[in-house]
Design goal:
- The chain is an alpha+beta fold.
- The chain contains 35 helices and 32 strands.
- Strands 10, 11, 12, 13, 16 and 17 form a 6-stranded antiparallel sheet that branches.
- Strand 14 and strand 15 form a beta hairpin.
- It is elongated, with a radius of gyration of 40 Å.
- The protein starts with a helix and ends in a 10-residue tail after the last helix.
């Protein structure tokens, strides 16, 4: 509509005061409405009629920042509320682009001090997620709710209730220019034309679902109803016990009863009079109070309106003689068609007064309500009648019983009469939606009506059951679609993926994945943070559909993991479990590449798998190791420490080149060539001596770690040695074990190898004790820092996560800025941890444990390792890849036994010419049958007996070098026959030859004989040698 037509309509506007110019000063306020009749013309000739719809906002969702009886106030919504529906998520994205969020902390409470706690649990902690939406509200007004509404809202009929109009969020380009922080609403929109604003408004809202009540509430406006709380201030105001938080200047949770959006409806209950002229002096008065707000409704903007103000019921405004008179008995809307600082030259400004519905007046003579209560009830923007006490409860139970009997026509009839029953709770907390879910009602029209009338999909009954817990799968799918909710993650994973893939790029980005999982598990605020941290740790690059649905994908993890089983039971599991995460295919490929590079390096020094040590290898005469099996562990440790002492003295001064040239192990009393088996046994003994007790390394929950830097001397086989030398030598030893492709029980914490991997990068991990940490000042950086700490001590990491996100002020006050007696910063012993500084506390705590406490010893370990293995070989390798290669797989699974059998039969059977003979094959199959029927302990002992180490390489049996072989001790007899070798009768025990990874087996007469002899040999052998 053009401006010319608007001006012609404005000239038809009625005088500003109802009742005409002859109204006398002593006239009662009720008489000002005698000529107010509903006007059904389109805007700006008329306004409405309007109806109201329930939103998803409920008690605890709003925080009141400030409220004034004249100027109104500001309420705050937390950004996390926008995950409740897809429509709100789309609106959230729009607000992101428009910069509508407030990123600041709430003002502190009066008298709380700098370190005080917040008064409201609804106010989030200070972190990057503390993002809010601030909305302006009108001055509140008291109303009396009829009994049915009291029952629907769960309040006593005698309680007082207030309502206010909530202004929408102004969009950039279609707003009047003022922000929620400005008291004088004067802004850039004063220079925009009506056409400019209309076009901008259309661009802002074209992508949003305006049919959604929540979107409409935030983009057009709506009403809120709440219980007043008296903020008792100075003594002179304490007599006014009906003032609802007036003068509040601190955040307080709003006791919200209902939030309702408006919508045009021809038979809507909220009707308005014909337009009346709005006087300029009223504009000046209300602009000074900050009452006018920019318009976002496209219909109003297109007609040229720029600003709107809700005029509260019976608001006093000056007449032409300066006398204060009540303008609109039931309230109304005032519209400005120009900028706030521009005059109304065309007399286009107008207001529309609310007209009470005719049937509301039927309760005028009801004694229990009284004339004053009736007057205030007219301010409700919906049509309700007062009913006898207890009537609503009886009607609700009647409705629920009809639903149980599946009398759906009668259910619809009662819902039309009592629409607030759609979400009301009956006996046991049951709602109509619970019964529909239990009965499997596939009625789209009925369910849609329930949703429109405010039925809450996730409302629990008294036993905590949600409607979806009672429903069949088809009902859940239908209801979720109607309510605009995510499909069920486990029943429809592909639909769930599509729903949360907002940008349709085929990947759930970390933010999308975090919101999706938090919604699926109905997480509270702490649970939401737990899920975000989990995603930051395990899915930093997001998840595509293949990674979700694959055999070992995310969906499998969610169904089988202990953590998410706890989350399903509304329990928060520990975020860090002290175990490594599975390697990805790319990580496996880089580890195999590292092994290939090491093989090339070995070949350059003359080393070949399964062959004797090169001539230039340095002989290491050492004491004999103690027997395994039934040997005394303490005796074995003393023997292993003796071997460590002899080895250390002979190799402590050797260069990295000499270590790569290698050693030839000579155990006392055990003659023979070192074809690799003795080196494996030597490596196992040294690792046992290093990590078998706490003499050299401290004990942590997941392994061993370096002593603090203030420990300068360590005992080694009865001799005190500088700790730096021992740790440098340890680095060389583990590098040599990796170089020789041995497997050892390395119990060093994974953090040492993460540190090693980062030190291999061209830029060093740190250069001084006080270096700036590498972890970013973001939630992702914080989670990465705690993940590093978990690789040292997952218990401490979990505790620090709780300090950061979960602990209350009462808990935090017991902590100070110290760690193990050391101050984390100067004066830390006297500094108390609080919500304001706990982020710093966690960062300093992690930095101290990971970088400062053992810096010198860590650096010595790294230096020693890179003396033997060049750092360039570790580029691109997984941070714990070296550790995984060193320890291999400690458990020998059925799958690995099957892989080993496939590797040996037939390719590894000896004699080669007889490998296909049925007798040889039968003996080999009996052998692996005995292995499959044994437990994990026996399997590990068998590997040690056969291969020299009780574990398999990380990449599986196919990477074993030399290739494992099983020799059945037979020879050819005639053209097709075979016979036992004479020196290998059936009674002879099997023998393991670890140098060549061979196992020799006498031809058994039966499976039982083979099983008995094999167990006897494996359970009683000595390290590296067969039992004869």
């Amino acid at each position: 509509m053009g401006n010319c037509s608007v001006r012609s309509i404005c000239r038809k506007a009625l005088p500003p005061w109802p009742g005409g110019p002859g109204t006398t000063r002593g006239q009662k306020s009720q008489s000002v409405n005698v000529d107010l009749v509903p006007c059904m013309e389109p805007f700006p000739e008329g306004l409405g009629p309007l109806t109201v719809r329930n939103t998803r906002l409920r008690s605890g969702d709003m925080v009141l920042l400030e409220l004034d009886a004249v100027a109104g106030g500001t309420v705050r919504l937390d950004r996390r509320l926008f995950s409740r529906s897809r429509a709100l998520m789309a609106l959230e994205a729009r607000f992101d682009r428009q910069g509508a969020w407030t990123r600041r902390q709430p003002r502190p409470q009066n008298g709380s001090g700098g370190g005080g706690s917040s008064s409201s649990a609804a106010t989030p902690a200070k972190d990057v997620e503390a993002t809010f939406l601030d909305l302006r509200i009108s001055p509140p007004h008291a109303v009396n709710l009829p009994v049915p509404m009291c029952a629907a809202l769960g309040i006593a009929p005698e309680e007082e209730v207030h309502f206010a109009w909530v202004y929408p969020v102004p969009f950039e380009g279609c707003q009047g220019g003022e922000s929620s922080e400005q008291s004088s609403p004067i802004g850039k929109a004063d220079n925009l034309t009506a056409e400019d604003v209309s076009e901008a408004s259309g661009d802002c809202l074209e992508e949003l679902d305006q049919e959604d009540p929540d979107v409409s509430f935030l983009t057009v406006g709506g009403y809120i109803y709440f219980r007043p709380r008296v903020d008792r201030g100075p003594p002179e105001h304490r007599h006014d016990t009906r003032t609802p938080l007036m003068g509040a200047r601190r955040p307080r949770e709003l006791d919200l009863l209902s939030a309702r959006a408006i919508r045009f409806c021809p038979d809507g209950a909220l009707q308005f009079s014909a337009p009346r002229r709005w006087e300029p002096r009223w504009t000046e008065r209300l602009v000074h109070q900050g009452r006018f707000q920019p318009i976002t409704a496209r219909k109003w903007v297109a007609a040229g309106a720029r600003y709107v103000c809700w005029v509260r019921p019976d608001e006093p405004l000056p007449d032409a003689n300066g006398r204060m008179r009540n303008l609109a008995h039931h309230g109304g809307f005032a519209f400005l068609f120009h900028g706030l600082q521009e005059p109304d030259t065309d007399e286009r400004d107008r207001y529309f007064a609310v007209v009470a519905e005719p049937d509301l007046t039927r309760g005028e003579k009801t004694p229990s309500m009284g004339p004053e209560g009736l007057r205030r009830s007219f301010s409700l923007p919906f049509n309700l009648m007062e009913t006898p006490r207890g009537h609503a409860t009886l009607q609700l139970e009647k409705l629920l019983e009809l639903a149980r009997r599946e009398r759906w026509a009668l259910v619809r009839h009662l819902l039309a009469e009592y629409p607030h029953f759609a979400g009301a709770r009956g006996k046991g907390g049951l709602t109509l939606l619970h019964i529909c879910a239990e009965r499997g009602v596939m009625d789209v029209e009925l369910l849609t009506s329930l949703k429109e009338l405010g039925a809450v999909w996730d409302a629990p009954d008294d036993e905590g059951r949600l409607p979806e817990a009672l429903a069949s799968r088809p009902f859940r799918a239908l209801a979720r679609d109607i309510w605009g909710l995510s499909p069920d993650m486990f029943e429809d994973p592909e639909g769930w993926f599509r729903y949360w893939d907002r940008n349709t790029n085929g990947v759930l980005e970390p933010e999308e994945l975090g919101q999706a999982l938090a919604s699926a598990y109905h997480c509270d605020d702490i649970g939401v943070q737990w899920v975000r941290s989990y995603v930051n740790l395990h899915h930093r690059a997001g998840v595509d559909k293949a990674a979700l649905l694959s055999e070992r994908g995310l969906l499998h993890t969610l169904q089988t993991s202990e953590e998410f089983a706890c989350l399903r039971q509304s329990r928060r599991p520990p975020l860090f479990l002290g175990r490594g995460e599975p390697l990805k295919e790319a990580d496996w490929a880089r580890l195999l590449q590292l092994e290939a590079h090491l093989e090339q390096l070995r070949a350059g020094y003359g080393w070949e798998a399964g062959k004797p040590a090169p001539r230039h290898a340095l002989p290491l005469p050492l004491p004999a190791p103690s027997p395994e099996g039934s040997a005394d562990p303490e005796e074995r440790l003393r023997t292993a420490q003796g071997i460590l002492g002899f080895t250390f003295e002979q190799t402590r001064e050797l260069s990295g080149h000499a270590w790569r040239a290698g050693f030839r192990i000579d155990f006392a009393g055990q003659e023979g060539l070192d074809d690799g088996g003795l080196t494996k046994a030597w490596a196992a003994e040294i690792a046992f001596a290093l990590f078998g007790d706490a003499a050299i390394f401290d004990t942590r929950p997941i392994g061993r770690f370096f002593k603090p830097d203030d420990v300068e001397m360590l005992p080694l086989d009865g001799v005190m040695i500088p700790s730096v030398e021992i740790y440098r030598w340890t680095g060389r030893f583990l590098a040599y074990v990796l170089y020789q492709r041995c497997l050892v029980d390395c119990r060093l914490c994974p953090w040492a190898f993460r540190f090693l991997q980062r030190a291999s990068l061209p830029r060093h991990f740190f250069h001084s004790r006080c270096a700036t940490p590498e972890w970013g000042q973001t939630p992702e950086g914080e989670d990465s820092m705690l993940a590093d700490l978990a690789s040292l001590d997952h218990t401490v990491a979990n505790n620090l996560w709780r300090v950061r996100h979960e602990m209350s002020d009462d808990d935090l006050q017991w902590l100070d800025f110290t760690c193990a007696g050391a101050e984390l910063e100067p004066g830390g012993g006297d500094k108390q941890v609080s919500k304001e500084n706990r982020e710093l506390y966690v960062r300093l705590f992690c930095t101290y444990l990971l970088k400062q406490r053992c810096q010198t010893h860590l650096q010595a370990f790294v230096t020693g390792f890179f003396d033997v293995v060049p750092p360039r070989l570790l580029h691109g390798v997984h941070e714990e890849g070296v550790l995984r290669l060193l320890v291999g797989r400690a458990e020998v699974s059925d799958l690995q036994v099957r892989d080993l059998e496939a590797l040996v039969i037939p390719g590894g059977l000896i004699p080669t010419k007889l490998r296909d003979h049925p007798v040889v094959r039968q003996a080999a199959h009996w052998f692996f049958k005995a292995v499959r029927e044994s437990d994990g302990t026996f399997r590990s002992r068998l590997l040690e007996f056969w291969l020299g180490v009780g574990r398999l390489p990380l990449a599986g049996v196919v990477t074993l070098r030399p290739r494992p072989r099983l020799q059945i001790m037979v020879q050819q007899d005639g053209a097709k026959g075979i016979k036992r070798i004479g020196s290998w009768p059936a009674e002879r025990l099997p023998e393991g030859h670890t140098c060549g990874n061979e196992l020799w087996l006498a031809l058994p007469e039966s499976y039982a004989q083979l099983h008995s002899k094999l167990h006897l040999a494996v359970e009683n052998f000595e390290a590296g040698f067969a039992l004869r």
